[in-house]
Amino acid sequence: KIIKVVKDNTPVKKIDKGEEAKIILDKTVFYPESGGQVGDTGVFIKGKNIFQVLDTQQFDKVIVHKGRVKEGSFKIGDEVNSRVDIERRLSIARNHTATHLLQAALRKVLGVHVQQQGSLVAPDRLRFDFAHFKDVSKDELNRIEEIVNGYILNNKSLKTEMLSLAQAKKQGALAFFGEKYEEKVRMVSISDFSKELCGGTHLDSIGQIGLFKITQE
Description:
The chain has helices at residues 86-110, 138-154, 165-170; strands at 2-7, 10-12, 14-16, 20-25, 42-46, 49-59, 62-71, 73-75, 81-84, 116-121, 126-130, 158-164, 184-190, 194-197.
């Protein structure tokens, strides 16, 4: 159900075809930009009325859908059918799960001092920022790529569980740099080679990644 509509930073009751706006629902299946992962896109549908969601953001735990009315109109109180662009979401999940494998491989090849300092998880690529004390050699890059592709070929399943922060740390989960965590956290585990605290969207099994290729360092 639509509980708020904002156009040009002003709350409005209704939006019509061609108008850009931000919509807040009472609940949503759309994942907002968070932890380096880009926000979901998709559509809201009400009969023949279509709102195209071009980005999803989060402000103070409120999830905001940014987009424009493609057909018809929408108003506060409307009940909509919300559909995420699932192919795009799957591409993002491939790259997000791959960042976890990459961090595990980096720590294996370069040392356990390697820590994530930032990332971008998009449908077409991933970028991973990490702390290390010198340039990574070509041989090391080849080895890292080889290890990640070895993990993918093993096609291990991925497990997510909600734990207390203390339990997750006890199990050796890696936390994101400088991040403030709630008392309950989500731990994403891939077999015995990766355990991270993460709220993002992931694959069920890592073979779905297909191929991992380092194009630039």
